[in-house]
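Sequence in, structure out.
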Amino acid sequence: MRKFTFLLCFLMTGVAFSQTTLDVVRLNLARTSMQDVDGDFEETDISNVNLEILYPTPLSSKTTLVTGLTVENTQIDNLFSLQGANFPNIFNSLEDDRLLMTRLNLGVKMKHSRKWTGNYVLLPKFASNFDGDLDNAFQFGAIAFMEMKKNSRRVYRFGMYSSTEEFGQIITPLVGVYYRTKNRKFTLDALLPVKMEANYYFSKKFALGADLRTSVKSYFLNGYSQDLYAQEESIRFGLYASYGLFKNQVLARIKAGFDTTDYGVYNTGDKVGAQVLTFQVSGDDRNRLNAEFDSSFFVGLDLIYRVGL
């Protein structure tokens, strides 16, 4: 059931422009408490902080260089407290586990013709608990998608995302749309599987909206008697109230929603090979070492610094 839900909603975090604006700085805070699906273990508190900074540099009338940095920190009060029968007893006393990802965003936006624009981004990153050397924590991804401009209010998107992960290679086809009504009150901005956000402005500053943000990524785990990694499969669907500050350049959003994030722990070397969306091409016969996390509600706060294009 989790994989079916995840397939419907799957979304990889990437670098994307809306049609008229760019989020130069985006800070997302979220907190939830989760239990295992069978209810055998105590709840564990999980907090997530995600900071993304993008810096666009126009090179010509048709080409814009986009560089930036993404840092994500997930603090889990007991990743190993949700233990399955396969989990080694040596990890029973571990607490306050941290999963940290730092990623460079190195991209270019190119206008190929009146209708077609290309977005090409390299995404090198380190993902680990950062408890030791980072030799095994390096991963490399890339995203490329084309935008076909139907008119000033409607744009269609098509592309591909791929990344090396601890569990293997993930490949994700992309399709999306940008749409804005004539009165500019309603906007839909989607790149599925890259992102989805919809909002309606009741005034120049106040809006209600919904967004869907998901990820599939992995973290090398240092500091244990054997090499391990954690695989995160995350869906966060939230409803929010947004208020614009400083002439609407800064958006503050209070958010609440549903979180289905799961953190599976495996031995390094226990891989699936290629994975398309959430389906493993050669099947998945890995030996999971901890129990599956159940879904839960979350609360969050977003702060966004947005500029016009």
